[in-house]
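A.,

Following up on our hallway conversation. Structure tokens first:
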């Protein structure tokens, strides 16, 4: 299952390349719009490239999450995708973790702050 509720306040999206990437982000956005404050982790472990449409969806998702007081963490980003993130300046906008467990641990350690 690409989208899962990790805890009461944390959603995890195991992303894939297009077209599944857009579908997963749309589904995650729908889930977040219906609820209150939620944190989300985007797991990029299986993503080998991102395009401008993906970046736009990620920015929209970040805005949605932060507008409700939540946090968005990107994890498992490979070298090619990381290069795109650096070139576009997204490394200054998003929070990152090396892998899914590290991302989840970071969110859970700061939960309730």
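Then the amino acids I'd put at each of the 113 positions:
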């Amino acid at each position: 299952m690409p989208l899962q509720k990790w805890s009461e306040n944390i959603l995890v999206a195991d992303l894939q390349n297009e077209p599944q990437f857009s579908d997963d982000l749309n589904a995650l956005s729908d889930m977040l719009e219906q609820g209150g404050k939620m944190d989300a982790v985007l797991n990029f472990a299986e993503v080998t490239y991102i395009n401008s449409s993906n970046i736009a969806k990620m920015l929209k998702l970040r805005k949605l999450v932060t507008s409700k007081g939540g946090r968005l963490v990107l994890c498992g980003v490979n070298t090619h995708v990381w290069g795109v993130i650096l070139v576009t300046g997204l490394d200054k906008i998003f929070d990152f973790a090396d892998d899914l467990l590290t991302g989840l641990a970071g969110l859970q350690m700061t939960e309730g702050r």
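The longest strand covers residues 3-7. Curious whether your intuition agrees with the design.

B.
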